[in-house]
Specification:
Elements (H helix, E strand, L loop, with lengths): L2 H24 L2 H17 L8 H22 L22 H8 L4 H7 L4 H13 L3 H8 L3 H21 L4 H17 L2 H7 E9 L1 H5 L5 E3 L1 H8 L6 E6 L2 E8 L2 E11 L2 E8 L2 H7 L2 E2 L3
Parallel strand pairs: 1-6
Antiparallel strand pairs: 1-2, 3-4, 3-7, 4-5, 5-6
Helix pairs in contact: 1-2, 1-3, 1-4, 2-3, 3-6, 3-7, 6-7, 6-8, 7-8, 9-10
Amino acid sequence: MDERDWLTERFEEHRHRLGAVAYRMLGSRTEADDAVQESWLRLSRADTSGVENLGGWLTTIVARVCLDMLRSRESRRDHLVDEHVPEAIPADGETIDPEHEALLGDAVGVAMLVVLQTLAPAERVAFVLHDMFAVPFDEIAPIVGRSPTATRQLASRARRRVQGTADVRDTDFTRRREVVEAFLAASRDGDFAALLAVLDPDVVARADGAAVLMGASAEVRGAEAVAETFKGRARAARPALVDGAPGLVWLQGGRRRVVFGITIERGRIVAIDMLADDDRLHALDPELLDS
């Protein structure tokens, strides 16, 4: 076995963990794959003769790649909508071994990814590496360019924000379903006032790339704008279980065309994510609820 084959074999031993780290940070399987590939390229060009812990070294590299991607995402005002909408995992038909599934599946639902996306890039990196992968703060500090103490504060601030969001998130299934069905009824009836009643003032409606191609707006913010968007529509939508929570699915000819992931806090809708990409529809596999 030559040196490159040996290096490739060693990298493959760590690929699943690197993918899990990147996915949690980026919320996109495609971008996570890109980050892992970039880590391989950097490994193939680096002198690793003095590296004692290759897994730790690779985790540092993929974290730096992800941090650059997150900062680039924040600095661009015209970035793709797909970067906003977390991707569910895994898609039907994909083969994922138990270890990989465990790494990805632990608290990485769409709801958690939505919360993580509210964090600043450095906060997200510090929180994910420390709280989800037990990386020590003195190893995270050089990645985010802070002292270990400041890095600890980053993770602590991120943890409070994540826990605070979780605390206010409405967890009563029946109540959430009632809100979703009230939204659906108001939308079908074109009842603007009723729509405003179930929408948070700062609600945001987002669409993935496929939904945009179907005519949806990439992003709409504010209760009045969102209410105007949905007024008199959703006639073909039906209540459904989306990623374990009440949502909606639009059927056409018996085929799922768009899934509406709905996030509710304090009894009002704070986010509507419209997903039309085939892979995402298969991954979410929404289950229709009785009307």
